[in-house]
Design a protein that fits this description.
Elements lengths: L1 H36 L15 H58 L3 H32 L8 E4 H11 L1 H6 L4 E5 L5 E4 L1 H18 E10 L2 E8 L32 H11 L3 E7 L2 E7 L6
Parallel strand pairs: 2-4
Antiparallel strand pairs: 1-3, 4-5, 5-7, 6-7
Helix pairs in contact: 2-3, 3-7, 4-6, 6-7
Length: 300
C-alpha cells in the first residue's frame, strides 16, 4: 500500500516537473521570438506568461536593456537633428559674407572708377573680416562645449575692463548715433575671472545691444551683478529663455546678409560665464531687455 502511494506521488511529481519544464521551454521560445520580432528603436517590451521568479527577473533585465538602447537611439536621433541644424546654420552664415565679398570683388574688377574700386575693396575686406570673426566664434564655441578651453583665473578690476570694451565699440556707437551709460556703485570692485575671456563676454553683450537694441545702452553694477539694459526693436520676437541657445536670433525679420552674427554670441557669453563660476540670465520688461551677469569671488 505504501509502495503504491509512493509510486503515485512520484508520478505526480514527475508530471508536475515535466509540465513546468515544458512551460519553461515554451516561455524561453516565446522570449526568443519576441526578441527576434523586436524592431530597432521599438517601444515594445517582453512579456511573460510563466509567473516564475527567475523568468520574471530575466524578463525585467532584458526590458531594462531595451530601455537603455531605446534612450541611446533617441539620443542619436536628437544628435543627428542637431548636427543637421548646426551644419545648415553654419553653412548659411559662412556663405553670406563669402557671397557678398565675391559680388563686390566682381564689381571692383569691372569698374574703371578708382574711387568706386577703393570702396568695393573696403567692403570686401569688411566681409572677409566678418567671416574671420564668425569662424573664430565657431572655433571658440566648439572648444567651450567640448571643455577644451583653459582659463587663467585671477582678480580682475571690472570697471576699467568695461571701459576698455566700450572704447573698442566707439565707432559703431557713433554710426548708430547711440551711446552707453555707465553706473557703477563700486568702481574699485574686483571679480574672479579670466580677463581676456571676460572682455569677450562683455564684448558679445555690447555687440548684441548694437545689433538688436535701440537708444542708450545702460550698464550698471550693483554688488556682484552687472546689468546691460536697453530698448529692443521687436520685444514680441524675443524669448528670454531661448536667448542663450546657439544660433538663436531674436529678430526673425533680420536679413542675415546685413549682419555677420551667427547667433553664437550670447551662447559663448553663457558658456564662458559659467566656466568662470558666474551666471547669466535675460529678462524682458515690456520693450526693455536686461541681461544680468552675476559674478563669483568679488573683492572690494
Amino acid at each position: 500500500m505504501l509502495k503504491t502511494a509512493l509510486i503515485i506521488l512520484f508520478a505526480i511529481l514527475f508530471f508536475l516537473s515535466l509540465t513546468a519544464l515544458l512551460l519553461y521551454r515554451r516561455q524561453v521560445r516565446g522570449l526568443a521570438q519576441q526578441l527576434k520580432d523586436l524592431e530597432p528603436g521599438s517601444n515594445q517590451r517582453l512579456t511573460c506568461s510563466v509567473r516564475d521568479r527567475n523568468i520574471l527577473s530575466l524578463c525585467r533585465l532584458v526590458n531594462t536593456y531595451i530601455d537603455s538602447q531605446q534612450k541611446l537611439v533617441l539620443q542619436a536621433r536628437e544628435a543627428e537633428e542637431k548636427l543637421k541644424y548646426t551644419i545648415a546654420s553654419v553653412s548659411h552664415d559662412i556663405r553670406t559674407p563669402l557671397t557678398g565679398a565675391s559680388g563686390y570683388m566682381q564689381m571692383a574688377e569691372k569698374t574703371e572708377d578708382p574711387d568706386k574700386r577703393k570702396e568695393y575693396c573696403r567692403i570686401v575686406r569688411g566681409r572677409l573680416k566678418d567671416l574671420e570673426q564668425l569662424l573664430d566664434q565657431l572655433f571658440l564655441y566648439t572648444k567651450l562645449t567640448s571643455q577644451e578651453i583653459s582659463l587663467q583665473m585671477e582678480l580682475v578690476s571690472l570697471f576699467p575692463l568695461v571701459c576698455e570694451v566700450l572704447t573698442g565699440f566707439y565707432g559703431k556707437f557713433q554710426e548708430q548715433n547711440r551711446e552707453p551709460s555707465l553706473d557703477f556703485q563700486e568702481e574699485a570692485i574686483q571679480i574672479q575671472g579670466d580677463s581676456s575671456q571676460l572682455k569677450r563676454v562683455l564684448g558679445n553683450l555690447v555687440s548684441n545691444s548694437l545689433s538688436y537694441g535701440l537708444g542708450t545702452l545702460f550698464i550698471f553694477q550693483k554688488g556682484n551683478t552687472l546689468t546691460f539694459s536697453n530698448k529692443v526693436k521687436d520685444p514680441g520676437s524675443i524669448d528670454p529663455d531661448q536667448m542663450f541657445v546657439r544660433f538663436y536670433r531674436g529678430d526673425p525679420s533680420r536679413n542675415a546678409s546685413k549682419s555677420s552674427h551667427a547667433g553664437l554670441g550670447l551662447s559663448i557669453a553663457r558658456e564662458l560665464t559659467q566656466a568662470m563660476g558666474g551666471k547669466i540670465e535675460a529678462r524682458l520688461h515690456e520693450d526693455i531687455l536686461e541681461i544680468v551677469l552675476t559674478f563669483q569671488g568679488i573683492s572690494r
